[in-house]
## 1
Amino acid sequence: MERAIKLQVRKELDGKQEVNIIKLKGSLITKGYTEIIHISDKDDEFYINSFATTTASNEVKEFILDFINKENLSNTISVLA
């Protein structure tokens, strides 16, 4: 059964934040959590990045939260669902 995960990503990023967001997305794909990440506008400040996964959503969310903490991205990206 597929589970949807949504991330809220700030549009205004510095170079280091942008590289780290790309690393996170690449890691989600290479670890097999998803094959594609969809990006849509939320408003003037944020994008919504969403993807489906067959992995337990708690495992994926834990991976994302660990990455956010490790790379100090708490003001840049957050998990919505």
## 2
Amino acid sequence: MSNSQRSLLLTLIISPFFTQWSASAEPITRIPGEISNGKPNAPAPRPEPLVFKVKNTVTRQMQVEEAPEMAGLPPIKGKIQVTVQLVADPGLVDPAPPLPAMPVTDPAVMARLAEYRAKYRLTKIAFVSASVYEHKRTLISCHPNGEPSHVITAWSNLDFNHLSGFSRFEIKGREGVMQTYDLMMGISDMPGPARVKRLVKAGQIDKAPTPPNLPDLAVAGPAFVVVEGNASDPEAMNLLQGMHDLYRNEGPRMEAAYQARMKAQAERRAYLLANPPKPEDVTIQFWKRDKPTTTPNP
């Protein structure tokens, strides 16, 4: 068998497996965990309550007003019972003594820092500020690792409300290495044109910024235009491009989770309006130690 025949046979054998592997390969950007869909998490297990020997009790009623669970709902008002109890010393274990101060040059400290740097060397913090206009355009400002020298501002054709509900994502950065970002984003939905006109006329806000021409998301996919900052900065551009690649790969999942959160929020709001919550009674217990703690306060 000639070399060319061997190459052709090898290609015919390998090709189906290579095609299957390529189709199941991980995307270059992804959200490694779940996205919040509005369902409440399972409550954390509560510790067994301590049983106190009550020495003295004082009770009084108090009118209170608390902030509502959601913005736009009426405050939580009502009378509560406040109970203050002097109890016997339950004999709790003394707190652990403070750790001894160690200089940074200590070999143990240096080894621990080196281990930490090696473990988290590919984790960065993405500080993002996003102003969403009519769920069609977003003015974003990115601060990779919070460094002012890398700040970049851009208009995007994404609704950045969808890029919430998760705190970590991964981007395949330079040299083909996966870069992990911890996302810290402040986001706000800006008023529509009619309300903006009223606010401008009343002198409450300046003229709203006008986004540049961007293709529609449904037609051209995720796109952005840099309007301020250094567009050749690799740190900032890698983050900016990476977030749009992330939407390209995870967009349907992110949008579905966002819609589920909005539905859960509307249902919760309707429930609270139909069943106004009442403030809960409060019980405060305190005691004097039979013996002083063995750990002096610093």
## 3
Amino acid sequence: MREILTAALKKAVEEEGYIFYSGFEYRAGKIEGNFPAVWLAPPKLVNVTGEEDGEREYAVELVLMASGVGIKERGDVWSKLEQDAVEIYHRIGKECAVVRVEDLKCWPGEYALTGYGEVSMKMTCRVVLFWQNGWCEK
């Protein structure tokens, strides 16, 4: 299920025009100043319902990043990143295994996460996937 979720998130992010990274790549310097970019932290399984089939709910954390600009323009960049986060949120819900996406939250990053001085917006949400026993993971 984790692979299905990551693929759905990657597709939504790339359709919005961002380069997709997952895991802890930004900490290893893999972003290398290529923006706009999105970093996906490893999703957290937070709830499971059903035995033979049911739902798995994941807490998702994404960080949207754009090239750094002067302080005066930060508000405009944050507005754009926030709008893109909402679009990504809606795109995730259109994937076939996704039952629903809920609890969207966004807030601006105070500092750059990399050495490239980017402006960032953290996005969190819950993504619920449908699963059947033996359907996706073997």
## 4
Amino acid sequence: MSVAELIENVLRAILAAFYRDRAEDFFRDRHALTRAIARYGVECHSRGWEFSTLSIQTELLALLNQIRKQKADIKYLPVYLEGAVDRHIRVRAEELSAHAKLGRNIVKRTVGGIQPAAVREATAVETLAALYKAQRRVKAQRKSALKPIVKEAQQSLL
């Protein structure tokens, strides 16, 4: 599964669970929801953890189910989801770290003494982290473009 498929699957689950009767709101929030999903990659990447897209999808869907079951008063889902991803990773840091180490050990045993090539494809976590940073950059550029230009008053010529 690719990262694009991961994002689409999670977005479909969000649409079904939280935006069932409000499709126009979902399409308005889609960009921010994608950024919230990508937040998982940023947090894992900052800790040096690598996961497959399937395990990331499983974690995110479990988190969404937990949010849905809590029936919390959510004012704006993208912001709430981004905070929930941060909390989820902080609370389960030991378990996720052990899972990431287990994955690294399996790769080491499987590959053995073979030296990896210098060129490699970005992992799912790296791709999500890059997506999050790119979206933050675009948001900042939009914000700076919307700032009004303040004209200074002309000084007196007399």
